[in-house]
Amino acid sequence: MLHMIPFSVLDLSPIVQGGDAAQSFRNTLDLAQHAERWGYQRYWLAEHHGMPGIASAATSILIAHVAGGTSTIRVGAGGIMLPNHSPLVIAEQFGTLESLYPGRIDLGLGRAPGSDQTTARALRRNLASDADEFPRDVVELMDYFSKESINPVHAVPGQGLNVPIWILGSSLFGAQLAAVLGLPYAFASHFAPQQMMQAIDLYRTSFSPSAHLAKPYVMLGFNVFAADSDEEATFRATSMQQAFVNLRSGRPARLPPPLAGYANRVGPAERALLESVLSCSAIGAPSTVRASLKAFIERTGANELMITSQIYEHSARLRSYEITSGIFAEKKERP
Predict the structure, then answer these.
(1) Which conformational region is residue 51 in: left (phi greater than 0), alpha (psi within -120 to 50 degrees), or beta?
(2) Separation of alpha carbons 265 and 238, rounded Å
(3) C-alpha to C-alpha distances, 21 to 26, 182, 205, nearest whole angstrom
(4) 3-state class of 162 per DSSP?
(5) Preceding omega of 157 cis (within 30 degrees of 0)
(6) Using one digit for the tens of pLDDT, what is the confidence trace for 117-129?
(7) Which terminal residue of the chain has fewer beta carbons within 10 Å of its beta carbon, N or C?
């Protein structure tokens, strides 16, 4: 029996070949409305820049779009790449979101720029500054939300609002920072699983209880490509596999249609890359996905899973999330 934990959605608002950002945003809202009905805990969008296949660059605006079209599901950033922004601006943006949609907004913070160096410069980021200003920026941002802010500048709206802050990471740095600050931690195991177990252990053993969180809380990214048969799921997963090989080869592109037999078309280096980066994945029919999820939860002791499904056809993507929701609904119904 699966230990019952919440499942959530990570949506990169993919721009598919033959589509555009407008279509991506329609699909994002449609998926969010379905996810709400299916019982997912939260719906997160991620900041990326200069990526032809990802439409969620203006993350705060897209969060408002999703929150405005839903009514109960939590909506947030997974995450905002804080080095790209002034902490005050993010406090104002998320203070605005929390004022519009009270009790439903999450703010996950990442240390990576979410782009390459050229794009980072275009974002007016000071590349000469200390890369590890991130902890100071997080503390400054948290202070803007505090009722007793020590900063002479106030975030309006923002001050005194309860916007839960999460630390995101794909290495040990974020785990350590989340533990020291007593914040929940989300690990990007859906594309960078190499240090996952070490990061979880470091976070849990180093965790200091805070006013925000009494005990460690770990959310892990996990890829799911679910379909009515193992064969169809394997076929659907090839869009994400192609996209990842393109990205790592320096050729980022829109999410391509699935390609039958793709695994046999790539060389050993690409196959090894995919096996490594996509090791935290479930690909198959409901029974296959159920077994993969069960094994992953038992291995990691995750408190919550953030499910991502980079599937080309919107209807097939919806079906994958529907199948996954059926698995956690089963868990709830069992005595």
Answers:
(1) beta
(2) 11
(3) 9, 37, 42
(4) coil
(5) yes
(6) 777 778 765 655 5
(7) C
pTM (predicted TM-score):
0.94
What DSSP line would sit under 86-150, residue for residue?
Answer: -HHHHHHHHHHHHHHSTT-EEEEEESS-SS-HHHHHHTT--TTS-GGGHHHHHHHHHHHHSTT--
Span 260-292, pLDDT tens digits: 999 889 999 999 989 888 899 999 999 999 999
SS3 (DSSP) at 152: coil
> Are 110 and 191 spatial neighbours (Cβ–Cβ below 8 Å)?
no
Q: Which domains does the chain have, with CATH numbers?
A: 7-221+306-333 (3.20.20.30), 222-305 (no CATH)
- Preceding omega of 79 cis (within 30 degrees of 0): yes
Tell me the two tokens of residue 223. 């890829």
| Dist. CA 20–CA 1, nearest whole Å | 42
To which residue do tokens 């721009």 refer?
Answer: 15
pLDDT value of residue 1: 42
On the CB side of 25, CA atoms within 13 Å amount to: 17
Phi, psi for 71 (deg, rounded to 5)? -130, -25
Query: Residue holding tokens 């533990």?
Result: 179
Q: Which two tokens stand for residue 202?
A: 């470091």
Cβ distance 75 to 63 under 8 Å?
Answer: yes
Tokens 């919806």 belong to: 318
d(CA 305, CA 2): 13
Farthest CA pair distance, the chain: 60
